[in-house]
Amino acid sequence: MRMGEFGRSGASLQALPVREKSSRCHPLPRPGSAPRRARKPPAPGGFFCARPRRPATFAAVPLRYLTHSFIDRDAWDDCVAAAEQVVPYAQAAWLHALNDGRWDAVVEPDPSNGGYLSLLPVPTQRRLWGREALQPPFTQQLGLLTTASSQHREAGEYLALLAGEFARLHLQLNDGDPRPARLPTGWQAAERLTYHLPLDLAYENLYLGYCADYRRRLRQREKANLTLAESVDLAPLVHLFQREKGAGVGGMKPEYYQRLLRLYDALRPLGQTLLLSAQAADTGELLAGALFIRYRSRLVYLFAAATPAGKKAAAPLLLLDEAIRRHAGTPGLVLDFEGGMIPSIARFFANFGARPVPYYTLTQTTRPWYLTWMR
Question: Which pLDDT belongs to residue 52?
């Protein structure tokens, strides 16, 4: 029965008092009832307009787990480009090249345009014992990427949607993600370090931040008998790396180098690559090389190798100095040396004036104990 309709069994309309105007907000009194207290007239529009207004609130859109076939790559790259965290590794081209085109994600949908407000990449691999989510090669960081409109900002919310999906997970957050305050049951977090050098100062100022030995060796660069040049072919540097130390890098499979070449081919047309080489001035022999990736406000020292003769001539030092010289004075740009857990390498980076920056790894294993040794 609607308000304003007063017909009830045992009562007649003639017995009801008559008003000039009926009110939808307050029903007329029943016959014989006590008189009502005087009330303030409702605002125009009836009962619902008379209620005090409350600030508008918007419920957060639920997170969604997407398998790879349901990921919109254009929307993905738009979110990565707009993210508060600068993560070159999260680009669709990067994940496609280095994880054989297989990655899922937990996303926060954008109801306004069908895109994503935030995302957590989940690189996937298939094993005999089930699916795993492991960090791809040459991919230091991924983690949670949020935008200004994100409502879900805690990594634990995203990880909860991965429950029961994988036999093993190892994910590395980015240096813009804080250590998760709450993790789902079974997850463990560990700290790792990378080294950053801001490049917004002029080169002369950055040079003064080098250690004394580096400055001395750079002053003697003419005696090194090296020629520094920009290259376009990554294959010689990859072959140099495999020859000099490929066998000494644990977990590096031959196919990983092919993936790196595919990544270079994908990013070079986008203007994100800088490949520098150091050659013997008299013979033209490749003595050292370094690949840098520039994306937004980040310059990543991704891949490098040197021969014993190149190390003796300080070629790695000269190549890094050349990259710093080229990008010095760029507001907001940061050189990420991409490493620092090995003490000798950490010292090499710190001697450029770089500072350690933490990021976190997250692991979970649900496989039987007798399979945990298998990679």
Answer: 38
